[in-house]
Amino acid sequence: MPGKGMTPKEAAEALIAAMPTGVSESHLEEYGIDATAERAQVFTRELLFLNLFWIFAAIEAHIPSKYRPLISELVLHAVETGWGTTYPVGPAAWTAFLTEWNERRQRYERLVKEGVSSLALSAEVGLGLEEQRAVGEEDRRQVLTLLIDSVPVDTYGQLLEDVG
Length: 164
What we know:
- 66% of the residues lie in helices and 0% in strands.
- The protein is mainly α.
- The chain has one domain (8-160).
- The longest helix has 26 residues, at 37-62.
- The chain starts with 7 loop residues before the first helix and ends with a helix.
């Protein structure tokens, strides 16, 4: 089992507890981004993609291979359980999210292997939000700040650093 007395379930719970659950309209406004319910849902979905990517990267880096599938499954199950409530994504279907998540994960992995930093990956997500017309180019700085603040990359690694 993982070290420090942490079970795979406890490791998954710690990761989920560290992950932001969603973006509200008021949260967007705090960053100076014009807010609508639809825009908040788009941001929530994009943050889920990005947070899950970094969570899975932390699992890959810090968890013994025999526990990775279980912890990954527990993390995804927790997100699915909170789908639409804890994670207010609007009308998006879980199965469609998983399909897109797998595509994003592969793209993000490729970018990281090419040497892209976590900051540059957040900027990439911000550009994607512009392409979706969820925000305008004039919001680029605020979007990047929100993404950086809402994706605790270092925390995920620290939670699992001594596991295994």
